[in-house]
């Protein structure tokens, strides 16, 4: 029988090409959690625009349904976001400016949009009723960013429950973790994290703080550890380093846990600040600290892989066996720091000011203002060797990353932005107060 000797190489070529295309799509068209797949705000896609405004590079807009400070996530051709919709505004009683307990009625919901068109594919209501806790007047009841494994979407509404849906919006399970008072009644903000079929939820509050691991398929509690902490807002991270995989959280102490069983690995004491920003890391070190405020300056610590026990520097010292360096005047604020090509970038939440540090030594290379800016709450990001950040009024600055400071351009969209971006292989998803925007060429 005559054989076609060219068919096999051609077949292999097509199969290989298909696999590479599939892997490329999976790698770059996913933004499955807060700050992206690597929790690092590094955009892998290459064909994204470097500028945009209300009439430039806007593929579609979709009106926001409800209010939220959570960030959008993307998987495949779907965009997901959480929100809280005010259904009924309670009347303010005589001689009462703010009620001691919330009387308004809300719907807590998860929405799925088509990535290509912005069309609403489905919206599911997780809960409807009066809030179980109060919130800051400038905040919302949907501050936690959802997370997906590509089969399910997990959404946490703080003290209003954790919910698991399939990608068609069908409820798989729900879990009530309780309702506890938060600092000054300001509410919650720590997003859930997925790892190896475990969903981690940090519930720090003024009454009974804890970290819990739920079975991602069933919602069953796998382990739970009490925490000697008050209210925090920082999202934990999974740190895969040269020694092991760790679950790292912030509070008055930074704590590392074994994600398999909740066993404490190491802890690091902080002197002051609020746990708002999340850590960044590479294989060798994790960089973390507490965010400053009106009377505090946020600090920054570089912790080495392999740490164990209490690794806090001795009083008056800035290093220890496992703390490579620390800077009590680093100026860490609410945006999470950014790590890129051996440099750390710390964005102030006021004035458009950004600081750059050598990640190895901790040396501050510069502290400069990009220009006039409103408050910055969202985390900065890297795309195509450019550093981006935007303020709450939609003004975006583009910087050249490196050891010297250089502003390349700026542009804006007329909306209010507190949420961090999501990205695909060729577009950004920006979530404002008025609209969600798909920004692409």
TrEMBL record:
| Alphabetical list of PROSITE patterns matching this protein | PROKAR_LIPOPROTEIN
| Organism expressing this protein natively | Maribellus luteus
The record ties this protein, via PANTHER family, to: CELL SURFACE PROTEIN, OUTER MEMBRANE PROTEIN ASSEMBLY FACTOR BAMB
Q: Which domain of life is it from?
A: Bacteria
**Pfam families with a match to the protein in the record:** PQQ_2 (PF13360)
**InterPro entries xrefs:** PQQ_b-propeller_rpt, PQQ_rpt_dom, Quinoprotein_ADH-like_sf, WD40/YVTN_repeat-like_dom_sf
Question: Cross-referenced SUPFAM superfamilies, in alphabetical order?
Answer: Quinoprotein alcohol dehydrogenase-like (SSF50998)
Q: Which residues form the Pyrrolo-quinoline quinone repeat domain?
A: 110-284
The name under which this protein is listed is Pyrrolo-quinoline quinone
């Amino acid at each position: 029988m005559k054989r076609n000797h060219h068919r096999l190489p051609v077949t292999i070529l097509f199969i290989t090409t298909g696999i590479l295309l599939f892997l490329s799509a999976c790698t770059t068209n996913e933004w499955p959690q807060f700050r992206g797949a690597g929790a690092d705000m590094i955009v892998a896609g290459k064909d994204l625009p470097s500028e945009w405004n209300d009439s430039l590079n806007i593929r579609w807009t979709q009106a926001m349904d409800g209010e939220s400070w959570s960030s959008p996530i993307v998987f495949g051709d779907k965009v997901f976001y959480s929100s809280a919709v005010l259904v009924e505004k309670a009347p303010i009683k005589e001689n009462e400016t703010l009620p001691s307990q919330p009387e308004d009625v809300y719907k807590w919901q998860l929405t799925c949009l088509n990535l290509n068109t912005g069309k609403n594919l489905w919206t599911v209501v997780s809960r409807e009723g009066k809030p179980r806790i109060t919130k800051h007047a400038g905040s919302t009841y949907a501050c936690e960013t959802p997370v997906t494994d590509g089969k399910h979407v997990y959404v946490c509404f703080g003290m209003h429950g954790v919910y698991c849906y399939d990608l068609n919006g069908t409820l798989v399970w729900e879990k009530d973790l309780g309702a506890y008072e938060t600092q000054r009644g300001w509410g919650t903000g720590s997003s859930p994290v997925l790892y190896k079929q475990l969903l981690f939820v940090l519930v720090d509050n003024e009454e009974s703080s804890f970290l819990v691991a739920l079975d991602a398929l069933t919602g069953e509690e796998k382990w739970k550890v009490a925490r000697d902490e008050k209210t925090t807002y920082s999202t934990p991270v999974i740190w895969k380093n040269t020694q092991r995989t760790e679950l790292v959280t912030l509070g008055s102490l930074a704590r590392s846990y074994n994600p398999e069983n909740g066993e404490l690995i190491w802890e690091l004491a902080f002197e002051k600040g609020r746990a708002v920003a999340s850590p960044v890391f590479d294989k060798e070190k994790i960089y973390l600290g507490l965010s400053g405020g009106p009377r505090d300056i946020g600090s920054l610590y570089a912790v080495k892989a392999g740490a164990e026990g209490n690794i806090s520097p001795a009083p008056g010292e800035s290093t220890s066996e496992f703390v490579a360096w620390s800077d009590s005047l680093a100026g860490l604020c609410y945006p999470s720091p950014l790590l890129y090509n051996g440099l750390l970038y710390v964005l102030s939440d006021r004035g458009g000011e950004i600081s750059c540090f050598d990640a190895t030594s901790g040396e501050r290379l510069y502290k400069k203002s990009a220009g006039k800016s409103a408050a910055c709450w969202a985390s900065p990001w890297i795309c195509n060797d450019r550093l981006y950040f935007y303020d709450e009024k939609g003004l975006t600055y583009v910087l050249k990353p490196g050891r010297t400071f250089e502003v390349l351009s700026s542009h804006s969209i007329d909306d209010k932005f507190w949420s961090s971006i999501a990205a695909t292989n060729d577009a950004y998803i920006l979530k404002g107060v008025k609209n969600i925007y798909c920004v692409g060429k």
